Every structure is written in C-alpha cells, then in structure tokens.
Amino acid sequence: MFDLQNTVSVVIGGNGVLGSSMSSALAEAGSMVAVVGRNMEKAKRVCEEIELKGGTAIPLQADATNKAQLESVLNSVLQWGGSVDTLVNASGTNSTTPFFDLEMEEWDRIMDVNLKSMVLASQVFGKRMIEQGNGGSIINISSVSSGPPLSKVFTYSASKAGVNSITQFLAREFAPDRVRVNAVIPGFFPAEQNRTILSSERIESIMRHTPMNRFGDPDELKGTVVYLASKKASSFVTGALIRVDGGFGAMSI
C-alpha cells in the first residue's frame, strides 16, 4: 500500500530541516529522490544520508523562484530517473517584521519563496506529470499560520493562506489527468526559519494551544508525505489540507 518502488520524487527545499526528513521518507519507501535546494552542500549531505540507509538520491541546485532553473532540474531528473511521480514543495522562509515596518522588498521575498516557488514548480513538474499520462502527486507544505493567521508573521501567514488556496485550485484543475494535489499543514516543528520568533513567552503560548503539549519532530511528517505520494494509499485524495499539528487546529480556548 505504501510502497514507492519504481517512482521518482522531487523535493524542492529538500535540504531543509523538514524537507530533508520528507526526502528520507520517500527514499525509505523506495522512491528515487531528487533533493533540490539553493545550497548544494546541504543537498549533498541529505543525499549521502539517504544512500547510507540504502536509498537512491541525487542532489540538484536551483533557485525555486526561477522557472528556468526549475526546468533545468526537470531535465536533469528525467535523464537520471526517467519520470516524475511526486513533487514536494517544501521551500520556506519567514520574518517577524511588524506590519507598519514591512517593506515591499521583504514582502516580495517571502511571497516568492513560499508561494511563487510552489506555483512555478507546479507548472514545470505538474505539466510533465500530465504529459506522462500516469498521474502523479503534488504535495505542498503549508502551515498552521495559514488560517487563522498567527501573530508576528504577517507575510508568512498570507503566503501560506495562498498555498492552501492554490492547492485546492490545482486539485480541481489536475484531477481529470489523475494528478493529485494536496497540502500538509504542519504545526510547530522548530527549524532555522522560526527559531527567531520562539521566545519563552511564545513557546508557552504555543504549548497552551497544543493539546499534545509539545513540538513536533520532523520525522512525524514522514507518514503523511508517504501516504500522499502513494497512488494506492491515497488514490482518491486530492484537494485535502491535512493537519499534522498535535491538535493545534482543534483548540479555541
């Protein structure tokens, strides 16, 4: 049911904390994985760890906000693996700039990394999936900040709300071609991009609103990603926004 043998996966942002865990999950399930990121050294390290466990992976360098570079990645992946079956859009960045201090340069940067990159990758790799005629799976990484929005991360919250909206739009558009599009909504998984906002006061507030009373571990995203990548396990699942948040989204007061 969850066997990904004879498939090829592309993880954009696969060298990050969450992206690397997702890359490993796909490889552990049998998929050949292309780990894509701006930092080639980090991508290489992720691939080395995958290969040490018996998996197959290739590091590829690209700016996910640049369509030409993504098309180059696609060509490399096709030469290496012959197809594209799964795309994970895991690029992300954040900022705590107050609303009245927000400059459009920062707005554009966050929107580009979090939202534009997802749109471009879905164009490049989604088109290929449709052309192949075998279906496929696009998995977008959203956030609990997508709605209701969290305080202090104005632009980030807006970008992730966009991820949810475009996920469901593309799910409808791609369904006739058997390309499924879903989003994972992680709760709080401390990573480089959000450590700056995790003051002791904010951590206390997060724990009050998380019934499981702890942060998530990146490996706890593995099962959801493999499930959504599997044509057997999630064959009738598209347009879903799946929470992996320790109950954060179920809390009110």
List the helices and strands and how they pair.
Elements: E1 8-12, H1 17-28, E2 32-37, H2 40-52, E3 56-61, H3 67-81, E4 86-89, H4 104-132, E5 136-141, H5 154-174, E6 179-186, H6 200-208, H7 222-229, E7 241-244
Parallel strand pairs: 1-2, 1-4, 2-3, 4-5, 5-6, 6-7
Description of the structure:
- There is one protein chain.
- The protein is an alpha/beta fold.
- The protein has one domain (8-242): NAD(P)-binding Rossmann-like Domain (Rossmann fold), CATH 3.40.50.
- It has seven helices and seven strands; from the N terminus they run βαβαβαβαβαβααβ.
- The chain has helices spanning 17-28, 40-52, 67-81, 104-132, 154-174, 200-208, 222-229; strands at 8-12, 32-37, 56-61, 86-89, 136-141, 179-186, 241-244.
- A seven-stranded parallel β-sheet has the order 3-2-1-4-5-6-7, with helices on both faces.
- β4, α4 and β5 (136-141) form a beta-alpha-beta unit.
- The longest helix has 29 residues, at 104-132.
- It starts with 7 loop residues before the first strand and ends in a 9-residue tail after the last strand.
- The relative contact order is 0.15.
- The model has no long low-confidence stretch (mean pLDDT 94).
